[in-house]
Model the fold of this input.
Amino acid sequence: MKRSIKTLATLMPFFASVPVLAQQAPLTMSQPQGAKTQVSIPVQPATANINITPRRVIFDRTKRTEAVYVFNQGTTPVTVDVALIDNAMLPSGEIVPVSRLADRGAEAQAAGAKVRSARPYLLAAPSRLTLGPGQGKTVRVRATLADPTATSEYRSHLTVTTIPTQDSGLTAEQAAAAERGELVLRIQSVFGISIPLIVRGGETDAVGTIGPMAPTAMPDGAPAVSVALRRQGTTSLYGNIEIKSGSEVVGLVRGVAVYAEADERTAAVPLLRPLKKGEKVTVSYSSDDGKKAVPIASGTYTAP
Done:
């Protein structure tokens, strides 16, 4: 029996494309009669690798256009769709499409309700690109301002998603090799990447503070510090978190945003070395939008 399955995995926060990971080992399922069906899952090679620059765009009274460059770093041609998507930031820092918040609970839906979409003020073209291996093309983005004099911020994400190639199923050799009762599935990876497009009217008014901090770990088990970032105002914050022990930098994470719908979010800062028991460090959050870093907030943390 032949069957083709395509899976979509689009990961955004921040701004990296991640392939769908599929089980490559055969699976066994029990049927009502007690018979067993062997399931083989051939996985399409993960050859698509899309990059995009810049990583973030702000439109204001002095800037109305931007050229976003999409580059195929993979080894095969790829076609991508270009779309404007509204996303919400959750207190965990996770970025989730507003259209998918219904099953994420009341807190997530409340965050989604605060998102001010920039889509009415943005135009991005073209909506589809075909890129050869090592080839890049430009997406032109133009913005208008709803009220150039008011302090306001609107945001949508420019999202680039690969389109799976037509899958004709199994080859004759693969079909012939399948045993009786074997169910063969084919999984094809899809990649996505996105950047925030922010449209602002007047001056920014956001201020930030650092809340509670605690020890934590990165997904690979490496030591880290969980830092709560708090925001007030109508605009977002964006910057780098640095942890220093005296003059030694012991932790750093770049490009951490606190969007306008989030009053507070947590960020995990990986450590370059484990902190000693009772070691006191300084944690700073600084904006890097300009040529020189501008402090946003700072605090101290003592390792337990």
The radius of gyration is 23 Å.
